[in-house]
UniProtKB/TrEMBL annotation:
Residues annotated as domain Glycosyl transferase family 28 C-terminal: 260-316
One Pfam family linked to the record: Glyco_tran_28_C
Record: residues binding substrate: R176, E283
Molecular function in Gene Ontology: hexosyltransferase activity
Annotated protein name in UniProt: Glycosyl transferase family 28 C-terminal domain-containing protein
Residues at the catalytic site: H22 (proton acceptor)
Stretch forming the signal peptide: none
Species of origin: Puniceibacterium antarcticum
Length: 368
């Protein structure tokens, strides 16, 4: 149960440039907190590809900040351009909404925001949870979450108050409960590995359309005749039509699904995933799903290397060519022994209970 103020506000954005991952993992935490009696609100900027309707479909109110009339980048952080406005303007507009909500907790998941915004926008009496993956800027927070493999608490020394707890690593990965629910079934079916169902999911947006390039590679790689491919994109993906054309011309059965609500089920039924090294990494690990992973954003590189070093996934691509080395990685993954090894190692990394762990910690900490 939430011990004091039951209102929790989330400040996160989704857009064609940002992608969908920050909002989606915040939604997972919001649902876990709702189960404990919280009332959750999202504050998001009206950017192309925002997810306000998706948020509202979960029974959570979403307050949209005005669309930028002129794009601004004040350069305060490496990702300041993601806001579309200056950090100072965003803090003023966000605080106007947050003061009305008077939250007990404010959750911030945004690479463009740092200590300056936090001190300006945080309402009185609200405790602050920051979700970060970069450890590249200071935060004035009461609790910090970095769910990435290879990260250490010491990476945030000097960046967060010394007394603020730090929740570090995939034990705290924010996965929807359906992943934990599918875990036992998914692990059981991998006892006899085979390569028949390939899941291609390179992010909800895949702005550079790496999906089409991967499909071109799969078309030439000689998958078994009875194999099939499932491709997943988000509803705001700009390359949907191009991917649909590629899928229709594949030599083996290939289905494109847009805006799915059963990703855990799809992953549990897949024998191999081809995906980005973002938040879906921990979903695949929870289900023991072997994967070929690509770094599609700079912030994904450290976690991608960390998971590749464990042997739980095979890394392909580079900055110049996101599909470089794909054939070699797939050739290794076709071997049953390789699939079995990746599955066993992946399953040790995350078990799907991270959202409950974070929600419990927030409930125990309670607003001041």
């Amino acid at each position: 149960m939430i011990p004091h103020n039951p209102v929790i506000a989330f400040r996160a954005d989704a857009s064609i440039e940002i992608g969908t991952g920050h909002v989606m993992r915040c939604l997972t935490l919001a649902r876990a907190m709702q189960d404990r009696g919280a009332r959750c609100h999202f504050v998001c900027r009206d950017l192309p590809g925002h997810l306000a309707e998706r948020i509202r479909s979960q029974g959570i109110e979403c307050h949209l900040l005005p669309s930028p009339d002129v794009r601004e980048d004040d350069g305060v952080t490496q990702h300041s351009r993601w806001l579309g406005v200056s950090g100072a303007r965003d803090a003023i507009e966000s605080r106007a909404v947050l003061e009305r909500l008077a939250p007990g907790w404010l959750v911030v998941d945004h690479y463009a925001l740092d200590i300056t915004w936090e001190q300006a926008a945080r309402p009185e009496a609200a405790r602050l949870l920051v979700l970060d993956d970069l450890a590249d800027r200071a935060h004035d927070c009461d609790l910090l979450l970095d769910q990435n493999l290879g990260r250490t608490s010491g990476d945030y020394d000097g960046l967060v108050p010394a007394q603020s707890p730090r929740l570090i690593g995939p034990d705290f990965a924010l996965l929807r409960p359906e992943f934990a629910a599918q875990r036992a079934n998914s692990l059981a079916r991998r006892q006899t590995p085979r390569l028949r169902h390939v899941l291609v999911a390179l992010g909800g947006v895949d702005r550079e359309d790496v999906t089409s390039r991967v499909l071109d590679k799969l078309a030439a790689c000689g998958l078994p005749d009875d194999a099939h491919i499932t491709v997943v994109l988000g509803p705001t993906a700009p390359a949907r039509d191009a991917v649909a054309r590629r899928a229709a011309g594949m030599p083996i059965r290939t289905e494109l699904r847009v805006g799915v609500d059963n990703m855990a089920e799809l992953m549990a039924s897949a024998d191999l995933a081809i995906g980005a090294a973002g938040g879906s990494t921990w979903e695949r690990c929870c289900l023991g799903l072997p994967a070929l992973i690509a770094v599609l954003a700079e912030n994904q590189a450290p976690a991608a290397k960390a998971i590749s070093d464990t042997g739980a996934a095979l890394l392909f691509g580079n900055g110049a060519d996101p599909v470089a080395g794909f054939f070699d990685a797939l050739s290794r993954a076709k071997q049953p022994a390789c699939l079995a090894t990746m599955s066993a190692l992946a399953a040790k990394i995350a078990n799907g209970k991270g959202a409950d762990r974070v929600a419990h910690r927030m409930s125990q900490e309670g607003p001041s």
